[in-house]
Design a protein that fits this description.
The protein is mainly α. It has eight helices and no strands.
């Protein structure tokens, strides 16, 4: 799990965020019960005992962070929120400087506004958080075998265009910062 997360983080930050949201929800589905996570999640991996121990430790570290940040019921880890904020900064810059991004944003904007209207006053976060939630929502629908509407597919595609562009720019920015 750690290797999967690290790979996603280095290759596509939006995929990493969505993966980590899924891991947060997985831990929540077991109410943070370590014994159940070990039995029903970790034990199912067809790996060596050493790898199973690594996976267990990764989940336990994640659970510890979740408990320390008091988000066992809902919310996201501060480190994930920080990345979303960084993506939002890139988003605002690209809106001013990249006509292709601005065009892609124009396709996503109606779906973002619709999400805000449907939220009925609940703060959904910034536009990038809304895009992530939309793509994650589609993933959850598919995982749960729920019917996905054409509108959901269109919104997820528009959100995905935004997120893939931001992921690219995030990766470039961070690779330059490391050099």
């Amino acid at each position: 799990m750690k290797a999967v997360a690290e790979n996603k983080r280095s290759q596509n930050i939006a995929e990493y965020l969505i993966y980590m949201y899924q891991m947060e929800d997985l831990i929540r589905s077991y109410q943070g019960n370590v014994s159940e996570i070990k039995t029903f999640v970790v034990a199912k991996y067809p790996v060596s005992e050493a790898e199973r121990n690594e996976i267990t430790n990764w989940y336990l570290d994640l659970l510890k962070k979740i408990k320390n940040e008091n988000i066992l019921e809902k919310g996201h880890l501060a480190e994930l929120n920080k990345i979303v904020d960084q993506l939002a900064q890139i988003h605002w810059k690209l809106l001013k400087t990249d006509p292709y991004y601005f065009e892609a944003y124009g396709r996503a904007k109606p779906f973002i506004l619709e999400a805000v209207m449907q939220a009925d006053g609940v703060d959904l976060g910034n536009e990038i958080q809304i895009c992530l939630n939309g793509v994650y929502g589609l993933l959850l629908c598919r995982l749960l075998g729920k019917k996905v509407s054409d509108e959901q597919l269109k919104s997820a595609e528009a959100y995905g265009d935004i997120l893939s562009t931001l992921s690219y720019h995030y990766k470039v920015k961070n690779s330059i910062a490391k050099n």
